[in-house]
Amino acid sequence: MSSLLKVVIADDHPVIRDGFTVLLSTDKDVEVLGTAKDGTEAVSLVCEMKPDVALLDLYMPEKNGIEALKEIKSTFPFTKVLILSSMVDDDVVIECLSHGASGILLKDWPTEKIIAAIKNSMTNQLVIPESFSSKLIDIWKETNMDSATSALRKKVQEIGIPLNKREEDVLLKVMEGKKNAEIAEELYLSIGTIKNYISSLYKKLGAATRDELMNYLSRHKKEEF
Known about the structure:
Elements: E1 5-10, H1 14-25, E2 30-36, H2 39-49, E3 53-57, H3 65-75, E4 80-85, H4 90-98, E5 103-106, H5 111-121, H6 135-159, H7 165-175, H8 180-187, H9 191-205, H10 210-215
Parallel strand pairs: 1-2, 1-3, 3-4, 4-5
């Protein structure tokens, strides 16, 4: 399984799409899977390519960035979405975060900062310009975790997997990239108990490795139910 960070880019300006593609290609750990010129194409591209991160321009035809964000997160709740913009205010940032975005990327940031921000989003770090108030961090933590938990439980129920609540809790932590020790600490359980839950998840989901477990739900599109 490839260890590359897989990214898709959506922007209605070809110069921006091409520029970000070239920019990200300078990092050996990042692979651009494809680009889209509007929100509708962006949603289709994410469904087809299943990237780790989607970069969405805030203002696009067909569907704008927030509309595309909501649709992507409803189907692939663990795909990280970063909104691209030249200038945003607090209200826009809060709206993006409330719908599950991992942050905002300003288009005029230097290359190294943009790449670092994309990588940081994969470790659940909030990506916002320094000028925004710290209250946004608390809003993001609350809304992001609540939406992710709800989306996971809903998808598990739709697929019909017979998991109990504690197994769902462990699965959520695994899909966040948490290690056994971290999961044990956050759920107030022993590492041995966490290992037992993960073994049970392997069996129920037909997974042989942790990567397969993390990617299981993303392979099931809504239209397949």
